[in-house]
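Dear Dr. L.,

I hope this message finds you well. Following up on our conversation about the binding site, I have prepared a predicted three-dimensional model of the protein together with 1,3-dihydroxyacetonephosphate. For your records, I am including the exact sequence and ligand specification that went into the calculation, followed by the structure tokens. Please feel free to forward this to your student if that is useful.
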Amino acid sequence: MLIAGNWKMNGTPDSMEEFGRMIARAPEATARGIDLLVCPPAVLISKFADRATVSKIAIGGQDCHPKEKGAHTGDISAEMLAACGASAVIVGHSERRADHGETNQLVAEKAAAAQRAGLTAIVCVGETEAERDAGQTESVVAAQVDASAPPSLDAAKLVIAYEPVWAIGTGRTPSVEDVAAVHALIRAKLEERFDVPVRILYGGSVKPSNAAELLAVENVDGALVGGASLKADDFLGIAIAAPKKG
Ligand code: 13P
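The resulting structure of the complex is given below.
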């Protein structure tokens, strides 16, 4: 079980205090075999990673450029993230797909770049509300998995996050039946191409009060948490609510 926090564009050096509270409470989750990952904004990765050496919280980035270095103003490479202490990076989050026009092809290149640098790539997929209303959820997610997580990736360093776009930051979540159906589809897709099991996270309005129900769903191997990952009590509350599944 992996509980990952995506801080998005939130946090300043003052956030070290809240992160310190997470570190203090982390053993409550890690003692139960739950892996914890926090993905702060890039400017805080070094600071968080230095602090996290005394804890079992892994640190990740929120995006990376496909190339290792070069003339790409404002971008950050996977190698830079790794050198600053990250062990994972989120790629293809729906906010980046929407705000920056990221395509499945680019997301696949970013995932490969992450693995080239030794990072675990957390590849995000998920349908919009219009796609769900049109009955296209399964076809959209299947196409995203096919094109953003190609068989050339290393399954041992791959995580898929299913995040329905309409559930992000809205307080709305799919029914457990809907989560189960999409996760089963993703599992089947992954098993077609990889021999090693790949974790599949659910993301979208996960909070301590709904975590136990969502995390109990078959083929849900953890959560990718946005808003509720900013507070130690909420983040750890989600992790502690996770059932033991291995
Ligand atoms: P919320 O938990 O705020 O809905 O965000 C989910 C998300 O986008 C995590 O990547």
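In brief: The CA atoms of residues 128 and 134 lie 10 Å apart.

With kind regards,
A. P.
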